[in-house]
Amino acid sequence: VGVTHADVLALAADSAWSDGVCDAVLLHSAYVFDASTFEIWAPLLNGGRVVVAPAGAVDAPALEDAVSRLGVTALFLTTALFNVVAEADPAAFAGLRLVAAGGEAATPDLMQQVAAAAPGTRVLHVYGPTETTTFATRHEVVAGVPGVPPIGRALDGMRLHVLDGSLSMVPPGVVGELYVGGRGVARGYQGRPALTATRFVADPYATGGGRMYRTGDLVRWTARGDIEYVGRADG
Predict the structure, then answer these.
(1) pTM exceeds 0.85 for this model
(2) How many Å from the N-terminal Cα to the C-terminal Cα in the chain?
(3) Boundaries of each AMP-dependent synthetase/ligase domain copy (predicted)?
(4) Taking burial as the number of CB atoms within 10 A of a residue's CB, which of 11, 37, 188, 209 is the most buried?
């Protein structure tokens, strides 16, 4: 996937990380995994530092050590890894300023447990294919608000369209396919123009032209203006 410097800058400039939450971000992802884009550049481009994770698994004791000994303030975990840590000790996230989790369907009970056990920690449910530079949406999970958290709203400078098969917008509550436009949308697939043409298409709703990425994910708008994930268009 051809992600540009401008795409990375757009990710790092999002207001979710602008208040110092990314002063020290734990780098535990392989550099070939798109999460490392956030782990490296969100702190460095906001005046923070990257904390390289010690060898070994990121489990509850390791996380508590990273916070207390290394001063980690934020991290991203895949949903599966977040669940493992949360099941072992939801209070292990206390001391962080932010934890973001995504990549699979959220487990509402565990996200609620973490939000309740670590009241000083912002718990974000994030969503985004590599083609939209790691994250396209975010939603803050609030303790005491039950139910499956939505994937939320667009990062700054991004546009979310829920469209039918003719690329017409669908109303809130109606399922459609999610298209992402604006800052952060990659150039396409390196050396694969045919595939690029099928997934990166003209954005008919962009003023002055633009492209949007066809995610293949089925979603719907809520009455509150959030996006709820429903499933994959290909089953």
Answers:
(1) yes
(2) 23
(3) 3-189
(4) 11
